[in-house]
């Protein structure tokens, strides 16, 4: 007797990177339902998520990638505010709360940073994170960024002034050994 064909979908054990698409809006809405995402903006409705997705999908001034696990978007890694004259870009990322702590964002960040500094011809990527968000600093260092300084008491969060740690990665910096993710562009 042979087994009946399985209808279970096999979820891969590693995300891949691809451009953000309109179908990602419900996943984005779910991801923003999280206190830790407050500094990323406010998305409370499907329409707001659709607007975010369609804005991020525009090419030119930014490249916004989804971390795709088995067809679902579980995070985003973005180079935005691209300044072609100075060959710089602003780098940022978020991961859905249920998928954090697996090293996937570090791998996604190094993959996009490499791409931005080669195929996109940028010279310098910049990022900043709140001092009380150590996971973001871990991602930055794993992606080859070097800490440049502290912007003291830059943000006012819930009545408390918070320092920001600033980082950059130059095309001439050593490439980190962090494993890369598959990139489908
Ligand atoms: C920041 C964020 C993307 C990190 O995602 P993640 O899935 O935890 O990232 P990784 O699993 O790749 O881990 C990154 C590093 O942070 C470390 N880390 C994770 N959580 C940590 C914590 N609470 N305290 C200290 N370090 C932590 C990990 O150990 C790892 O460091 P290592 O490479 O030295 O081991 C995620 O927490 C997030 O989306 N937060 C909300 C949005 C946000 O803050 N974005 C960044 C804005 S600047």
TrEMBL record:
Which positions fall inside the N-acetyltransferase domain? 15-163
- GO MF terms, alphabetically ordered: acyltransferase activity, transferring groups other than amino-acyl groups
**Which lineage do the record's taxonomy fields give for this organism?**
Bacteria, Bacillati, Actinomycetota, Actinomycetes, Micrococcales
Identification of the protein by name? GNAT family N-acetyltransferase
Keyword line = Acyltransferase, Transferase
Family assignment from sequence similarity: Belongs to the acetyltransferase family. RimJ subfamily.
Note the superkingdom of the native organism: Bacteria
Give the species this sequence originates from.
Ornithinimicrobium ciconiae
**PANTHER family given for it?**
[RIBOSOMAL PROTEIN US5]-ALANINE N-ACETYLTRANSFERASE, GNAT FAMILY, PUTATIVE (AFU_ORTHOLOGUE AFUA_3G00765)-RELATED-RELATED
